[in-house]
Specification:
Keywords: Membrane, Transmembrane, Transmembrane helix. By secondary structure, the protein is α+β, with helices and mostly antiparallel strands. The protein has helices at residues 2-37, 43-68, 146-176, 182-212, 225-248, 253-257, 261-264; strands at 73-76, 86-92, 96-103, 121-127, 138-139, 142-143, 220-223. It is elongated, with a radius of gyration of 32 Å.
């Protein structure tokens, strides 16, 4: 009887100790998880992320401005080609093209070609049919290459999609206070900048293909301000992506490359 009592007491004691140990282990695990969940970025790091995001937003704005306008390239006839008081020029972008009729008297006397497009005159604008019926456009007896124009437009749309995805990642990183989403955001912005630059290159090749399709009408061509916006946006987006990469690192690259004198001594 007494032996059973002591055995039961001993077993109860062991069970009690085991219970306390298990509870302590669970409490420790919860504490570690709590510390991991409460790990937030500092105010200075959050400010740097907002500054880099502002740089990326500037690139996004320039991209949207360039994609939505039709001043990618200007094609101008010689101002005395028609032999009358007017001359014609054209300008177009990814989606739409315009043919303008200008007065020769308004053109700079030192300029040999018709233009620029900012001068007052009559304008006739139409959307391209690359995306609907698949027809090529004819501008001054020259035919466009729809495959190159479609490729330039698709690259621009893909870059815009990646910009939206990168912006969502940055918004989630700032709202949750964790730097985890900086790496996918940097990938999205860098790739979007590369695609924007590729879109400009493909569009330039489409312009050269247009000019080589017919030589009966002499044309002077020059890339316009929409391309300048898109090209600048590509560089800015790549810069913003690299800034997000630097901010996502667990250490400061500046301190690694240039350590303080106190730490060196």
């Amino acid at each position: 009887m007494w032996s059973n009592f002591f055995v039961q007491q001993d077993e109860d004691g062991r069970i009690g100790v085991a219970g306390v140990g298990q509870a302590g282990g669970l409490g420790g695990m919860k504490g570690v998880r709590g510390q991991r969940r409460t790990h937030k970025m500092s105010d200075s790091q959050e400010g740097k992320i907002k500054l880099a995001f502002f740089v990326a937003i500037v690139g996004v704005t320039l991209t949207v401005l360039g994609m939505g306008t039709e001043f990618w390239v200007e094609l101008a006839q010689p101002k005395n080609f028609s032999g009358n008081q007017t001359c014609q020029m054209a300008h177009y972008g990814l989606w739409k093209g315009c043919i303008r009729t200008l007065w020769v008297a308004d053109i700079d006397p030192e300029r040999t070609s018709c233009g620029p497009a900012e001068l007052p005159g009559d304008s006739n604008c139409t959307y391209f049919k690359f995306f609907t019926s698949g027809e090529n456009a004819v501008i001054f007896k020259k035919t466009t290459n729809k495959n190159l124009n479609l490729a330039a437009a698709i690259l621009a749309l893909l870059s815009l999609t990646l910009m939206v995805m990168g912006s969502i990642c940055i918004a989630m990183s700032l709202s949750k206070g964790v730097p985890f989403f900086l790496k996918p955001a940097s990938f999205c912005f860098i790739l979007s900048g590369v695609l924007v630059l590729l879109s400009v290159l493909v569009f330039h090749q489409s312009v050269l293909a247009l000019l080589s399709s017919d030589h009966s009408v002499p044309l002077h061509h020059e890339m316009s301000w929409s391309v300048a916006c898109v090209g600048s946006a590509g560089g800015i987006l790549i810069l913003g992506g690299f800034l997000f990469i630097l901010l996502s690192l667990p250490f400061s690259p500046w301190q690694k490359c240039f350590p303080h004198k106190n730490s060196a001594t």
